[in-house]
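[step 3/7] fold_predict: job queued, chain A
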Amino acid sequence: MQPEGLDPEAASIPYFIIAYEEALRMQDKQDSQSKIEQLQKIIDESSSIVFFGGAGVSTESGIPDFRSTSGLYHQQWAYPPETILSHSFFETKTEEFYKFYREKMLFLDAEPNAAHKALAKLEEKGKLKAVVTQNIDGLHQKAGSKNVFELHGSVLRNYCRKCGAFYDAEFIKNYDGSQNDGSASNYQRTVPRCTKDSCHGLIKPDVVLYEEGLDNNVIEGAVAAISSADCLIIGGTSLVVYPAAGLVRYFHGKYLVLINKSSTSYDASADLSINEPIGEVFSKLKI
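[step 4/7] structure written:
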């Protein structure tokens, strides 16, 4: 019975809207579950899986990406991030480079998430043959993965450009040149220098900056792995960064799977496309 003066048709609209939205949510949940089951079947049937990953794999570990609305490219700096992270900027404005690098590129307390751990477990079981990553955080290795091709290098490796001495990320993060010279300038205090004997060479992170080429050995290894895979799982990447994204073209196996929160240009070519956070997806799998 409708309250007096209330249009029966108007009163019924909210109910139908709620019912419709609930039906949509149920359908989305069923579709999601169906896709997880399809992914499980693909993994179970595959014996030579390669994973190709991007920034979206690490965002669930608290490491920001570059291109999302909250990413580094949408933050305000004196220089654009892609300029700061360039070879020429490193050479000419090294102090500014390291200020940005320490604050925005080093997340040494980050821990592997469900995706990293699941991939390491798949490798341990012999199903995953390689991880090809655009990330530089080392979280795949921290989770236990062994065969990892780091297309853009790693913040965990740093070398003196003069003598080649190795330095870890903690050294770069905590470097303070004034410890060796109390009268050191701000530049000398903030720009890491080699401490071996009397070298004092400039230390550079082993990451691929803009204007630099990718390592040929890493590329060759990644191409060989992707070319011989029967299943390629691409996760956490929009596939817009080249030449890295071009490696997907070397895959000629049976199953191409895409897992990314947003759609990509390869979705139509994939055997399975899942638009959900990759950690959530892998956490639902039985490995």
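[step 5/7] annotate
The beta strands are 49-53, 128-133, 148-150, 153-160, 166-167, 203-207, 231-235, 255-259, 272-274.
The radius of gyration is 24 Å.
exit 0
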